[in-house]
Structures are given as structure tokens and as C-alpha cells.
Amino acid sequence: MINARDRRRGGLCPSFPLSLVLWLALVLPAVAQNAAENADPVGPLPQDSGSAGLKDELQRLHTTARMLHTTAHPDDEDGGLLTFESRGEGITAILLTLNRGEGGQNKVGSNLFDVLGVLRTLELTQSDRYYGAEQRFTRVADFGFSKNPDETFQKWQGHDVALADIVRVIRTFRPDVIVSRFGGSERDGHGNHQASGILSREAFRAAADPNRFPEQLKEGLLPWQAKKMYVDNVCPFRSNECPDGNWTVRVNTGEQSPALGMSYLQFAVQGLKRQQSQGVGGWTVDPGPHYAFYKLVDSVLPPTADKDGHEKDFWDGIDTSLPALAARLGGEQSKAPFLKPALLQVQAHIDAATKLAEQNPAAAGEPLLEGLRTVRSLVAEVRRSALTAKAKDELLVNLAEKEKQLERAAELASGVSLNATLDTPIAANAEDAVMAVPGQSFRLKASFTYAEPVQWKSTKLDLPPGWTAKEINSSKSDNAGKHVSTSEFEVSVSAGAQYTRPYLHRADPERDGVYTVDDARYATLPFPPAPVQAHAEYSINGHDGIVHAVGLVIYKGENGAEAKRAIAVAPPFSIALDPATQVVSTNHVGTTEIAVQVRSNVATSGPAKLRLELPQGWTSNPASQAVSFTGPGESKEFKFQVKPADLREGRHEIKAVLDYAGKPYNLGYTIVTRPDLDSFYYYQPATQRVSIVDVKVPQDLKVGYIMGAGDGIPTVLKEVGMDVTVIPGEKLASEDLSRYHTIVLGIRAFDTQKEVAANNKKLLDYVAAGGTLIGQYETGVGDFNSGHFTPYPAQLSRARVSVEEAPVEILAPQDPVFHFPNQITQKDFEGWVQERGLYFMGQWDSHFQPLLSSHDPGEEAQKGGLLKAPYGKGLYFYSAYAFFRQLPAGVPGAVRLYVNLLSQSGGR
User: Fold this and answer.
1) Which of 134, 250, 364, 535 would bridge with 353, disulfide CB 3.0–4.6 Å?
2) How far apart are CA 854 and CA 157, in angstroms?
């Protein structure tokens, strides 16, 4: 047996076979880096497969330690700590991230708000595979930067919404130790960070209090008291040095792992790189010691620290061995005399498997299956016992984990596998891959691969209620000593099947700080589980095992190679209006064109009709259009000419509806994916928000827009009648800039387009010759300042105004930018969304004139958000104001002010 305390030194169980460790140490370093970089985003990582995966599962089987790590946003997590504890120590870990990062900036595209939240959920769950952790979320949203927890709680509808979800996770997962990334003080910076620390510390005790969130107890959850609570951020960031009094536990995440072929932190960074929308794709970490420091801030155990206040690890004072589950019952142990002998028997099977794996991993399969049978019997006996509900719950949570680990370890040792895929031709791209449609059917092929002495017993499908599956064919084949048993099924999708979509939504993503949960069954999960799953039952010398698989559809990825994603349920048609928001000038004459995109998911559509539901008095030509398709994946565009009843400033909504088979359809979805990620779906109603704006546009003004990270500003400018040309970064060097009155640098242009920095002199020469250049916010403060990209000295800062309602003062009321071609007043700063601005200039040369001032409550005025400087014959502007959010949202005042900025065409 392995003592839980013994395995805290080198990250490997002392009794784990040395020969296998040495083999891993010799072989894996040569392939680990490449394998980690190019891992299949759907299948297991190489480190979780074969002998390496078996070693990892055997280590997990030796401990019952459970850790909950809490953070605020994706990429806040201490991935090195999670990887060390999970992969080095075998603990079971959950990462609880309060929000999905939907309010941040997207470093790899233009998607923002909830579709960005879906992308970041995919990125983070991909990172979790490297960390060896499962993922949970709360209902609260990332609403943008916040400077204090008070604003955060106000946006999150109070203190208890997020707290309730943290408590729910604690009561469900039942961790021994909670480790918060943040401590809950100003030191944490971001208001969401501070809130995360405050709530985590409070949840430690609240989860054990039956008077807190009693509605959860009515659902069947029971109070749970974790044993110890730690916080991070107690020492200088990324420092290996920390005053003794500041920390309790120190973990060297830079320790080399023979199994991973690199350090735990280096492997974690491979996972962190999946979070490309956060701009961390290029991060690296050098080998060598890297310490994480954590402070014990609450505990229900007797002190275990030494004279300096330090513990050996998080688990000091906690016996995490498997037989110790019996001792945890205290006085109730007498009610379950069967428990400790059974646990010792399970431990003996695990020890036997560990020893056998040294010479022959396949030989470990049988004792693992014996251990699995014992655990399953023990679960049944615990349920029948006279133990209290609390005692049963703690045991059953741990035994369920052991059952899952034993199943997976036996699968790896036995070399069995199960693949379940749609029996259809491989689609040419992700969009054309077959979707399951309610009321229709598809064929699925499930193949179980095994070798002697394994015996296949059966393969079955696990489907949602109301679905049916009929086995229509089965076959067996042999290939290079392997047997393959294949079962083919005809699957009928329930007419009421739920679409594969997030289980929560926000009615107004630009303003709502909390999601509405549509299906409470999945509360706190990243996404609902895949609807189509399969399992195969097998045996080895009479000992039964099981292997699971998700039903997949195969298609051609971006590089032409085969890619896979889980079978998903979708409506017969996906409908979308392009664009989702349209800005119409009050000076617009005639009709506005509305384009409706319809994609079919059915083989033949039959008669269908597409129409628009319009505001009162509005008309469309035609009133409706006939729709027909010949096959799934086919997409068509339908155009309508819409005439408003009048053109007074205001907001309206247009809805597209497709009538088919007696039902109206009004939903569209976007497949959110990337070659290094899994896939999921962002749904939204087929509606277009129309913002009619009273805006004047100069005649014959030509604007060149150099896209940075991507935004919707050029689209809006064209909608209000401006002549805008998007200039690709790679064509900047050859482009004749003299054709334009104004050039705009898109958001984070210097961060994302190397050509912009390379051609900065050309841009400034354009200004000197009489052009107007508008730079927008940049996040690479150090690189921007060292690049000296402005015409006169200026220093970019990280200052921002995060409250969108913060007052704005016009500092130069006589300046033409506030008068031509539109009169700008205080009313134009009403109705802004998410934030005023970000990355204001902190210092500037006297040539610059600040035009606006704003600040968050209780802070000093920020005057570096809109600067103007004459340069030669032209004008240079720097704008930190968040026009990239305001214009796509159709905020009238922001549209007018932005048009004015473009219209200050210097001497040209």
C-alpha cells in the first residue's frame, strides 16, 4: 500500500515500477513537446494514452485527495499548480472559473460577448486536459474591466448569485482543500479577481451551513465542510522568493516530470497556449525551479505547520489513502463493518496491478477489473446500509471517482478501444458535417477493438429520453492480431430533442451581468454533454469491464486533414440576418437591404416560406419568399428590401421566420471551433437590431481602415453612407495613402499587424502631407512606448474607465471635432455599453491637446482618452474610447462622434 504522505516528495508513487518510469523518462522527452503542441483536440492526449496514461491512472487510484481551485476568468488559473497536483500527485482537481471571459478583448478575431464566451470555454476546457482537471463555471458574466468588488457585485445582481454557485460546486464535488487564485484584497487588481477571492473564502464555511442556500438541500445536495482553505497572490508575481511569513505551502511547479518529458509548469503552458484569444499563444517558460506560494487562511483541522508557519503540502493532516475513507466515518464506522475490509481489498488489487504493470501493462487489466467489481459491490452495499445520508454521500462521491478511474485504467491496460462515428461520407468542411435533426434518423457505426484474452460482450448506445436505436447489422474482423466487433445502428431522434447549445443565455449580452439558466440539470458545467454516446462491455477471465465513447462526425478540417466533433442536434434550418445589428442614417433615402442566410440540415426540405416580421408600418419587398433545398449543408441567401415607416432616431427589431412543416423557425447557430479546439454552437434568434441614427456624413470623404485585431467599425461606417476601404496589413507598404482623406488604425493594430509598425514612418509622412490619422487603443504598452509610433512623445498607460455611465467632460468645446459635421453634446455620451475606454495615454507632449476627460467613481480624471495633434499639414488623433463596442451596438452619440473624427481632414 502507498501511504498518502509518502508520495509528496517526487511526484511519483515510490512503489511505481522503476523500469516503466525510466522508459518514460527516456522516450517521452523526444516527443513530448511536439505531441503536446499538436494533440488531437477530441481524443486523449498522448500523455493520457497507452503506458503513460496507465501510469497516470494508477497513481490517481492510490489517493482520494480532492482539490477545488477557484479563479475569476479563463487564463487566471495556476495551471502549473493544477498540473503538479493532478499529474504529479494523482489528486482529483476541479477548476472553478467564475465567468467565461466574454467581456474581454479577442486577440485572434472580431467575435465578442457571448460567442467569445463559447470560444473561451472551448479554449479553457482544452487547457484543462493538460492540467488534468475538470472544469466548472458559475452563472455570472465577464462584463468588462472592473476596478473594485462593489461594482462587480452590482453587475452580478448582488453578492449571493455567484456565491450560491460556488457553494453548489463545493457541495457536489466535496473537496478536501480549496485553493483560491486570489485573496480578496486590492492586491488582486481587477474587481472580478477581488470578488473571486472574497466569495471563495466565504464559500468555504457557507457550503457547510444548512441555512445557506437551503434550496440546494431540497434538490438533494448536502452541506460539505472542506478541511482547509488557501489563497494565492501572497508573494510578488512570478517570483521564486517570498517572505516566510507570507506563505504556508510552497510548490515547485518547475519540477521535471519523467512522464511528461518536461516540467509540470512547462506542460501547463502547453495547455495555456490553447487560450489564443487571450494572446498567450506564444508564451514559453524556461526549465528550472518555479515556485507557487499559498497561504492557509482557514481550516477546521488542528495546526500542522512547523515553527516557521510552513506545511509540507496541502494535505498535511489529511489521510488521503483509500482505506482512510472508513476512518472518516468516525462513530458511524460501526454501522458499516464491511467497509474497511472491502477498501483494503480494492487497495490490494490496485497494488497488484501497479506491480504487474512494471513488466507487462496488459497483465494489470485483470486485477484492475477485480478492483472494479469490488468497488461496484461496495457502492451497492453502502446504499443499502444504515449509514446517515451525509456519510453515504461522502463515500459514494469517492467510490464513484474510483469506479471511473478503475474503468479507465483497465481500458488502458487491456488495450481496448471503442469508436462511434456517423455512417456518412466525410463532409468537405465543418459547416457541411451532418447534424442530427429532431424527428429524423441517422446511421451510426460503433467499433470495439480488442485482443486476447479480452472477450467482447456487447455494444450499446446511450441516448437521451425519447430517442431510439435499432441494431441493423453486426460484424467481426481481424487485423494484425486485433479483433474488431462492429455494430451498426439506425438512430431515430426524438421530435422534441433539444438542440446542442449552451444551457444558459443572456437576453442582452451588452448589459446583462448574469446568465439565465435554461436547463438546471447542467448548472455549472461548461456545456451540456454530447447527446450520442456508446459503451461496450467486455470481460477478461470472467471479470467485466466497460469502455465509453462519444458519437462523432468526421469532416475535412482547415488543412484538409480529417477532423472530428461530437454529433450535435440542430434545427432543420439555421437562419441568420446579416449583419445582426444595422445602423441606418436618418438621411437614408429609399429602402434598406436585409440579407437572410438560410442553411439546411435536412435531405430535402419540401415547401417552406421565409418572411420578415417588421415593426409596425414597415414594409418589405417581397413580403415572403419560397425556400427549397436539395440536401443537408446547402446554404442560400435571400434578400429583402425594407422600407421603414419613418426615419426618426430610435431602435427597432426585425425578425426572420421560416415556416416549414407547420412550424415557425427563427434560430441560427454559429459553429465555434478552431483546428486545436473541440467544437460547440452559439445560438441566437434570427433578428436584426436596427438603430436609426441622426448622423450627417461629409460628401466625397474617403476613409482607409487598416484592420487590427478585427472589429465591426468599417461595416457600420458603410451603413451610414461613408466611403470606407479596408486596407489589408500586407498591402500597406504598396498602398497609395494619398487617395484617402483619413486613415484609421483598427484596434490593437500595432499588437497584431507587424506591417503597421514596419510602415509607421509612411503613416506619419501621410499625416505630414495633409492626411488625418486616427490610432485606436493598443494593449502592448511596453512595445508601443518603446516603438515611438506617435508623431510626438507620448506614453501609453493601462488606465481605463470601466463604468460605461461615467461622466464625460468636453475639454475643448470649440474644437471642430465637436461641431463638424455633427453637433456633439452631453447627450451623445448616453447609452454607451460595457465601458468608456481603455489604455488611455498617461503622458503626452505639449503638441497634443486632450479633448475629453472621464474617470471612474472616486478616481482622478483621465484626459488621455482622446488626443489631437497637428503634424505637418495634417492631424493625428489617438482614441482610447471603446468605439469598437459602441458602433456595432448602434449607440447614436458614438456614431456621430466617430464620424466627426473621420471628417477632420487637415489640409487635404
Assistant:
1) 364
2) 26
Burial 484-517 (b: 16+ CB within 10 A, else e): bbbbbbebbbbeebebbbbbbebeebbebbbbeb
Terminal C-alpha separation, the chain: 83
Rounded to whole angstroms, how far apart are CA atoms 271 and 129?
7
Closest of 601, 533, 569 to residue 680, by C-alpha:
569
**Cα separation, 250 vs 294, whole angstroms:** 6
pLDDT in tens, 192-248: 999 999 999 999 999 999 999 999 999 999 999 999 999 999 998 878 999 999 999
For 166, list phi and psi in degrees, rounded to 5.
-65, -45
Sheet containing 592-600, strands listed edge to edge, beginning at the edge strand earlier in sequence:
573-578, 592-600, 635-643, 619-621
Residues 797, 485: Cα–Cα separation, whole Å: 63
User: Largest Cα–Cα distance of the chain, in whole Å?
Assistant: 92
CA distance 127 to 136: 13
The radius of gyration of the chain's CA atoms, rounded to the nearest angstrom, is 30
Identify the band that residue 149 occupies on the pLDDT scale cut at 50, 70 and 90.
very high
Q: With cut-offs at 50, 70 and 90, classify the pLDDT of residue 17.
A: very low
Residue type, 843: Q
Cα–Cα dist 15/321, whole Å: 14
Name the band, by pLDDT with cuts 50, 70 and 90, for residue 24.
very low
Cβ 116 vs Cβ 157: under 8 Å: no
Cα 721 to Cα 138, 579, 584: the distances in Å are: 43, 16, 9
Q: Which three cell numbers stand for residue 738?
A: 494619398
581 vs 586: CA distance, rounded Å: 16
d(CA 63, CA 691): 59
Inter-CA distances, 113 with 181, 307, 511, 891, 899, Å: 24, 50, 10, 16, 25
Q: How far apart are CA 280 and CA 283, in angstroms?
A: 5
Residues 741, 908: Cα–Cα separation, whole Å: 6
771-805: per-residue pLDDT in tens? 999 999 999 999 999 999 999 999 999 999 999 99
DSSP string, 590-652: S-EEEEEEEEE-SS---SEEEEEE--TT-EEESSEEEE--SSTT-EEEEEEEEE-S---SEEE
Do the Cβ atoms of 170 and 157 come closer than 8 Å? Answer: no
Identify any residues that bridge with 534 across adjacent strands, giving them in sequence order: 461, 549
Determine the Cα–Cα distance for residues 133 and 128; give it in Å rounded to an integer: 5
Measuring CA to CA, how many Å separate 811 from each of 639, 815, 863, 896?
Answer: 46, 9, 9, 18
**Shortest CA distance to 402 belongs to which of 350, 480, 353?**
350
In angstroms, rounded to a whole number, what is the distance separating the alpha carbons of residues 288 and 304? 29
For 112-123, letters b (16+ CB in 10 Å) and e give bbbbbbbbbbbb
Instruction: Tell me the domains of the chain and their CATH numbers.
Output: 1-62+322-413 (no CATH), 65-320 (3.40.50.10320), 417-566 (no CATH), 573-692 (2.60.40.2310), 696-902 (3.40.50.880)
Residue 232 CB partners (closer than 8 Å, separation 6+): 78, 179, 180, 181, 182, 183, 292, 293, 294
Edge-first strand listing for the sheet containing 228-231: 134-137, 92-97, 66-71, 177-180, 228-231, 291-299, 249-252
DSSP string, 761-825: HHHHHHHHTT-EEEEE--S-HHHHHHHT-SSS-EEE---EE--TT--EEES-TTSGGGTSSS---
Residue 758 corresponds to which amino acid? Answer: A
**DSSP per position, 664-732:** EE-EEEEEE--TTS--EEEEEESEEEEEEE-----TT-EEEEE-SS--SHHHHHHHTT-EEEEE-GGGT
Query: How far apart, in whole angstroms, are the C-alpha atoms of residue 402 and residue 63?
Result: 9
Of residues 833, 875, 826, the one with CA closest to residue 853: 826
- Which strand (E) or helix (H) includes residue 127? helix 113-131
* Cβ(601)–Cβ(431) below 8 Å: no
